[in-house]
Amino acid sequence: MRRRVKKHLPNAITCANLFSGCVGIVFTFQDNLVFAAYAIFLAAIFDFFDGFASRVLQSFSGIGKDLDSLADMVSFGVLPSAIMYELLLQAPQIPHISDYLNFIAFLIPVFSALRLAKFNTDTRQAESFIGLPTPANAILIASIPLILEKYSSISHYILNPYGLTLFIIVMCTLLVAEIPLMSLKFKNRDLHKNFYRYILLLFSAILILFFKFAAVPVIIVMYITLSLIQLKFADGSVISGSQKHS
User: Cα separation of 213 and 20, whole Å?
Assistant: First the structure.
């Protein structure tokens, strides 16, 4: 019995990730973008713990990696694109353009699929990612409805159709860009080897404490910046291998 639980627990957690994504899509249909955003955060928690459970239990099933990518495709591809589509509908409409421009939101699952497929066949990603991980992109998008709810006075800045369109294009580009970004996976507690991870976690905790969900965009920018700084001062080591979360 214990062996069966050990074998199937990581995949069960992955399925919980997928379930959260599906529920989040229903919330977008109901125009409840705040709950849809919470569904992304919940899916991200499950996405972290399925890999954690796999490593702790030393349970790596043949379908685990593919199931993880399929779940991520829904939770971190389709769901955030649905949120962005609804945000574009809420933005001031551009005559003769918005009817078509709104569909640009669905570039997000297209590029997320490319990111996930690339990850599954790329042998370089062990210590770092190449391109922005899909959960990070989805969490950034999930922060938008939460920021709008708390800071409604700036909604006219955020709900700008041109700004949202540019944001989608930039994020889709980052998903498939050949930019090495650090993983938050700690192999040990060594301060020197994990210096940039500790810096990111420390400042992220401080920002979230003071600014709540409004801190998420700043954290993502800081994550990318610290990754590039780490790359510049790296010892020339080559990215190799594979890692589950993408």
Answer: 19
Verdict on whether the full-model pTM lies above 0.70: yes
Which tens digit of pLDDT belongs to each residue from 44-66? Answer: 999 988 877 777 777 666 687 88
- Give the chain as a DSSP string: -HHHHHHHHHHHHHHHHHHHHHHHHHHHHTT-HHHHHHHHHHHHHHHHHHHHHHHHHT---TTHHHHHHHHHHIIIIIHHHHHHHHHHHHSPPPTTTHHHHGGGGGHHHHHHHHHHHHHHH-TB-SSEEES--HHHHHHHHHHHHHHHHH-GGGHHHHS-HHHHHHHHHHHHHHHHS--EEE----SS--TTTTHHHHHHHHHHHHHHHHHGGGGHHHHHHHHHHHHHHHHHTS-SPPP-B--S--
Give tens-digit pLDDT for 142-190.
999 999 999 989 999 999 999 999 999 999 999 999 888 988 776 666 7
Instruction: Give pLDDT tens digits for 181-190.
Output: 988 776 666 7
CB atoms within 10 A of CB 236: 4
Structure tokens at 161: 């159709």
171 and 108 Cβ atoms separated by less than 8 Å: yes
